[in-house]
Amino acid sequence: MSWNGRFNHESGVNQMGRNVGDFPLEQLREYKPELTGRPPDFQAFWAGEKVKMESLRPNVKAARREYPVQSVEVSDLLFESWNGTPLNGIFVKPAGAEECPVLVCFHGYTGSCGLAADYLKWTALGAAVYSFDVRGQGSSPDYARYENGSRITGWMLNGILDHENYYYTNAYRDVILQLQWTRSQEALVTPSSFGVMGSSQGGGLALAAAGLGDGVDYMVSDWPFMTHFERAMDIALQGPYMEVVNYFKWNDPQGATTDKVKETLSYIDSLHFCDSITCPALMAVGLEDNVTPPSTVFAAFNHLGSVEKEIEVYPQFTHEMNGFHEEKKLAFVAKQLNKAGRDLT
């Protein structure tokens, strides 16, 4: 039985793409599926998790290091999260800044918090950047214990039968605590404005962060993962969604756990946060992307509650780095920082 059969969701044909069977662009721009899969207690569940995180004071160690670019200061971070998991991170800020715009950047699947050089374009705009490893990725461990195993490599199936102790539920808790800390008096700089950003897994985390975090002023989410699972499981051909598809093939070929898996994923589906996001937003999609298919990205964009929102469409791009879009992101962030500066005067 296919995922499509389990969820009774129709597929379409993309008249522009060659690698992914998806809707034509005109239909993508109008694609706004009903949120029938969002749990009734979705808002209450995450509100409760935020309250739990607010009661914690994470132990964060920052070690300043020498860096050849004298216009910035770089620190290595060790962030002890809610269950004691030590997450490595990096902090880069304009030299001498005590108050400035702050940007939290989330990395892609199997990635890491990155290098200082990755963030110099944002410090050139006057912003400070925090980035942390997602638990279990980069060079950071994951201290959570998961009850199930599987035959599939990756993180998607850790705790897949228990939404309260699922891998990404735990990662979202990390994000909530990180956002709270970066806006606290213990943070390394006082934020004059606050943005979140990421691509792929990072794009899904940016959507969740904008929906979960208080006081997010703007968001950038490129071809987000963990978005609109019901559609993604039907048409994705590569990448992390396939871990769940292959779980059913190798661990549950007759779909006995389908409802439980669907329930777990519904609590971390970033699509379910989008209608509560009201800050200015920039998104991007590649129409040849068979890892995070275009319809899943447009579903998130069309559900955003933001009045000021843009989506950049790249017909020939797959799931890949896009230098053209980096220029668009620079312009968008610069606009948001200039607007914030005017608001402060």
Question: What key phrases describe this protein's structure?
Answer:
345 residues; Rossmann fold; nine-stranded mixed sheet; CE7
What does this structure look like?
This protein is of the alpha/beta class. It has one domain (25-341): Alpha/Beta hydrolase fold, catalytic domain (Rossmann fold), CATH 3.40.50.1820. The protein has helices spanning 3-7, 25-28, 42-54, 120-123, 167-182, 201-212, 229-235, 241-250, 258-268, 294-303, 323-344, and strands at 59-65, 72-80, 86-94, 99-106, 128-132, 190-199, 218-222, 281-286, 309-314. The protein has a 9-stranded mixed sheet, sandwiched between helices. A hairpin with a 6-residue loop joins strand 1 (59-65) and strand 2. Helix 3 crosses helix 5 (167-182) and helix 5 (167-182) crosses helix 6. Residues 4-17 have low confidence and may be disordered.
Strand tally is: 9
Extract low-pLDDT stretches.
Answer: 4-17
Q: Find the CATH superfamily.
A: Alpha/Beta hydrolase fold, catalytic domain
Q: Could you tell me how far the N terminus lies from the C terminus, measured between alpha carbons in angstroms?
A: 60 Å
| Neighbour order of strands in the largest sheet | 1-2-3-5-4-6-7-8-9
Q: What is the fold named in CATH at topology level?
A: Rossmann fold
CATH architectural label: 3-Layer(aba) Sandwich
CATH class: Alpha Beta
What series of H and E elements makes up the topology? HHHEEEEHEHEHEHHHEHEH
Largest sheet: 9 strands, mixed
The amount of beta strand, in percent, is 15-25%
* Number of domains as seen in the coordinates: 1
* Overall helicity: 25-40%
List the total number of helices: 11
Q: What is the overall shape?
A: globular
- Taking Cα atoms only, what radius of gyration do you get, to the nearest Å? 19 Å
Structural class: alpha/beta
Average pLDDT for all residues: 93
Active site: 200 (nucleophile), 289 (charge relay system), 319 (charge relay system)
Organism: [Bacillus] enclensis
Pfam family, one: AXE1
Binding site for substrate: 109
